[in-house]
Amino acid sequence: MDTVTVYSDNQIKVTACPWMADKADEVAPDGPLRMKGCTVIEPGARMVFRPYNVGSMGSRYKQLFATEHCSVMQTQGGVVIEKWRFKPAMNATDICRARQTEGERINAYYMSRKEETVW
After folding, report:
1. Does an H or E element contain 53, and which?
2. Which residues contact 37 (CB under 8 A, 6 or more apart)?
3. Full-prediction pTM beyond 0.70?
């Protein structure tokens, strides 16, 4: 798509050229898109946007199951991660009790899960 790029103090504004206005709505039909990345302005005023997670299919982790103190996530490579978080005010007995009860729920989830997760 042909664009007009305007460089100001700390802002870069990229808009579609007038002859491309009819195609501009096809880029983001559902509203504004937000992408995280790095904008590099090269010599000769050539601008390149390099998105983070190049080659990935979205976010780094996919949440599979969550309890009050634990979140079970899966990476795109298929590795399952359990992330436990407890408040500092909890004592060892409360933590052990929470891990026991929530651990049973998480194990039940693992037993009900299919062998393969399709992204």
Report:
1. none
2. 49, 50, 51, 52
3. no
CB-CB contact of 47 with 41 (8 Å): yes
pLDDT tens for 29-78 read 677 777 778 888 888 877 787 777 655 556 778 889 999 999 999 887 78
Closest CA to 101 of 114, 84, 80, 87: 84
The secondary structure of 82-117 as a DSSP string is: EEE---TT--HHHHHHHHHHHHHHHHHHHHHS-S--
Question: 70: closest CA among 79, 88, 83?
Answer: 83
Query: Whole-angstrom Cα distance, residue 41 to residue 8?
Result: 13
